[in-house]
Specification:
heterotrimer; A: alpha+beta; FAD/NAD(P)-binding domain; D-Amino Acid Oxidase, Chain A, domain 2; 2 domains; eight-stranded mixed sheet; six-stranded mixed sheet; 11 helices; 20 strands; 28% strand; B: mainly alpha; 5 helices
């Protein structure tokens, strides 16, 4: 029996068109659901758009958070096949510039092996031959399959494919309320920021993919999720000074990565927590820290002009007050029926853009289980449309 | 796939009818705030339109010949008066600017001196100015 | 230290006449015009709509007019365009359909980019440095639409393919080894509303925030088209 005949009966509303919402919409549409995506701003105008553009190999997590590392390397290998137009597959280096870094190397390599990340050791001269702007103090490096992606185009690519499969994507439509009847979310109240009209959209199921704003949505149904808005500052420098992603070979910390994207080099990132993620005041000392720490690996970054300085909140799972670098970077799908006794409502939180597809797969599996459907996920094998198709479908 | 220019409902913003941009002919005559290239563009529009107007004026004047010898003589007398001579210099300026700028467009458009198009424009205008001074002097001296 | 700034924002909502709204905000002079607009949305007027994503000039989404010139507001610090107590006027790009406030519809633009077919991000060989050459520059194009807004020809001829698509065509033509593909690109651009519509104002090249030099690329295509036609006259294959 063709199960998608059954899924067609259900209208699923996805809140948020960042990478998670876009990937969820694509997965839902591919499995035959009727899908509406609601986004209060432009596509990728929140966390995804302003992210670091790093297609994680998992190297940054392979020692302390191996679950995330495994997710990253698996998704990395899938995305490079299904979304070539939004990717630059240049690889990355983890660079040691002092003895402490060199001492970390062994545990890094063990981490790579334990999590299945391909790696290659390079000596200092090889590393500097490939990346001439690396510090003279470079002692050694490890190559991993990092990459660079275009966050906005990645979302557009997912959404173009979703639209091709019948999904409706509505930017500038803000969710103002959820209608709950008999402990079940039945409809979404929206405000169209373009026309000013308010309306109600019926939903058989609502997926909350609002990232750091997920708590605002769950509040509307009287439930909550442990999501902490955890901003980071990034500084994009004028000019591209490396071809590979350059990471510090050490425990993840502030300002320890330089991502070459297009014609810029982006130094990142820091971390603190905020209550309101709509407008983020950037602490001056965090910006200074990016120059200081970034130039330890690549001294030229101290000499060139910044092109753009920005900050955006990550949606990390946890509670305010916990040490935010210690919070696992993996994702979690919350079915509010199990947690809070509210049916028809699922929140997907945490994770990162690299793992958006896996997050979507997990979420739509939950959706299918809730509706008693067994439809396999096909996003791993489905080639995505060009991001440009988002505008032409 | 044909390029569709007909306005239709937006595909990126479902349900919205974007306001189509107005044709902004005035933009041709607003080089302020813009680069040198727009000055050359504006100069070419202004001189081009001026030359077309002159062409019809010229044909009109020539048609006086059909009216008769007397009216032509009257015209010649007017044509030698200083205000008309000044207009002759303006006409010459228009011809030179349009001509030399056109030469630049033709050169750059055939792939020559593409990288030096700015310098080419300045050079052409300097040439036009020199010829204008020579030509203007000649008009008044005669 | 923060500055007191006045933002004059061009507003438009469907069915209403366009208007200008004035907002007073406090902003660090080193923050950008886009930060100012986002702050107005966050703190003063939730009906304000504007496109933005990356905030570092690589997505091309946020392009607007600021003080009557095309900018990527995410990389223009307010101290570059005004002083303490000064005014910044912002509005949507010219020559595009306006959806709402600063939001323009890029539909036709992307349709034309898609026709050319060249994705802006090419796959790179792992572990190899890419040579910087003339072609490489096209990958700088962020599809922001600024060149179309700045072009005096686009202002009067909406059927003109426009600088961005023609620059893309140039790169696709020279990047492809396939003679059929080259011919397809030539057919697309060698016509009245293609390369021959350009009037060499070079405004696109001046306005481009990514140094793509679309005008130079259009001239390159013209030369190529001319060469191909002359060769055809003598019964030769296109070069």
């Amino acid at each position: 029996m063709n199960m998608s005949e059954h899924s067609q009966k259900y209208h699923v509303v996805v809140i948020g068109a960042g990478s998670t919402g876009a990937a969820v919409a694509h997965d839902l549409a591919l499995r035959g659901f009727k899908v509406t995506v609601l986004e209060r701003g432009e596509i990728a105008s929140g966390t995804t758009g302003r992210n670091h553009c790093l297609l994680h190999s998992g190297g940054r997590y392979c020692v302390k958070d191996q679950e995330s590392a495994v997710e990253c390397i698996e998704e990395n290998m899938i995305l490079r096949k299904i979304m070539p137009e939004a990717m630059e597959l240049n690889g990355g280096l983890f660079v040691a510039v002092n003895d402490e870094d060199m001492a970390y190397k062994q545990s890094f390599i063990e981490g790579c092996e334990a999590t299945g990340i391909p790696y290659k050791e390079l000596n200092a001269s090889e590393a500097r031959r490939r990346e001439p702007y690396l510090s003279e103090k470079t002692l050694g490096a490890v190559w991993v399959p990092d990459g660079v992606f275009e966050p906005m185009r990645m979302c557009m690519s997912f959404l173009a494919s979703a639209k091709q499969n019948g999904a409706m994507v509505r930017p500038y439509v803000e969710v103002t309320g959820l209608q709950v009847e008999d402990q079940r979310v039945v409809a979404v109240e929206v405000w169209d920021r373009i026309s000013g009209e308010e309306s109600v959209i019926h939903a058989d199921l609502v997926v909350n993919a609002a990232g750091p704003w997920a708590g605002m949505i769950t509040d509307m149904a009287g439930v909550d999720v442990p999501v902490v808005a955890t901003p980071g500052v990034m500084v994009s420098m004028t000019g591209r000074y490396c071809q590979l992603v350059v990471n510090r070979l050490n425990v993840s910390s502030d300002g320890d990565i330089v991502v070459p994207q297009r014609e810029t080099s982006i130094i990142g990132t820091s971390s603190w927590t905020v209550e309101d993620a709509d407008y983020i005041e950037m602490p001056e000392d965090h910006i200074q820290m990016m120059y200081d720490r970034g130039s330890e690996m690549m001294p030229i970054l101290r000499e060139v002009e910044p092109r753009g300085i920005f900050a955006v909140a990550r949606p990390l799972i946890g509670r305010i007050g916990e040490d935010e670098r210690e919070i696992a970077r993996t994702f979690k799908c919350f079915d509010h029926a199990d947690r809070d006794g509210v049916e028809g409502f699922v929140t997907i939180a945490g994770g990162k853009t690299t793992t958006a597809r896996a997050m979507a797969e997990g979420t739509v599996d939950v959706v299918c289980a809730k509706l008693d459907l067994e439809i396999p996920c096909a996003t791993k094998e489905t080639q995505l449309l060009s991001y440009r198709a988002y505008y032409t479908i | 796939m044909a390029v569709s220019n007909a306005p239709e409902g937006s595909r990126a913003y479902p349900g919205q009818q974007p306001r189509e941009p107005q044709k902004r002919v005035l933009r041709w005559f607003q080089p302020f705030n813009r680069s040198l290239g727009t000055w050359s563009f504006t100069l070419n529009r202004v001189t081009g339109i001026g030359l077309v107007v002159y062409l019809y004026l010229h044909l009109g004047v020539l048609s006086l010949l059909l009216v008769g010898e007397e009216s032509w003589d009257t015209f010649l007398a007017v044509a030698k008066s200083p205000p008309v001579l000044v207009m002759d210099v303006v006409l010459l300026a228009g011809l030179l600017i349009h001509g030399f700028n056109g030469l630049r467009v033709a050169l750059v458009g055939s792939g020559f001196m593409v990288k030096q198009q700015r310098q080419l424009f300045i050079g052409m205008m300097v040439l036009a100015l020199i010829l204008l001074v020579i030509g203007g002097t000649a008009v008044f001296l005669k | 230290m923060t500055w007191q700034l006045t933002f004059k924002v061009a507003r438009y909502k469907p069915g209403e006449p366009p208007r200008t709204d004035t907002f007073q905000i406090e902003l660090d002079p080193e923050r950008t015009i886009l930060d100012g607009v986002e702050k107005i949305w966050a703190e003063q007027d939730r009906t304000l709509t504007f496109r933005h994503a990356c905030h570092h000039a690589s997505c091309g989404s946020c392009a607007i007019m600021a003080n009557d010139v095309e900018v990527l507001p995410c990389i223009v610090e307010v101290n570059q365009v005004t002083r303490n107590g000064g005014t910044i006027e912002v509005g949507p790009l010219h020559n595009f359909p306006v959806v709402s406030d600063l939001v323009v519809d890029m539909g036709t633009f992307f349709e034309r980019m898609q026709q050319v077919g060249m994705p802006i991000i090419g796959p790179t060989d792992p572990l190899d440095n890419q040579p910087k050459d003339d072609f490489h520059a096209y990958e700088n194009c962020i599809e922001c639409g600024i060149c179309l807004s700045a072009c005096p020809v686009v202002a009067t001829d909406p059927t003109y393919l426009g600088p961005a698509a023609l620059a893309a065509a140039y790169r696709q033509y020279h990047n492809s080894d396939d003679s059929e593909e080259k011919q397809r690109i030539m057919n697309l651009v060698d016509r009245e509303n293609g390369i021959w519509r350009c009037h060499v104002a070079y405004e696109c090249t001046a306005a481009c925030p990514s140094n793509v030099d679309p005008a130079g690329k259009i001239m390159g295509l013209r030369r190529q088209a001319t060469v191909n036609r002359v060769r055809k006259l003598f019964g030769l294959k296109p070069a």
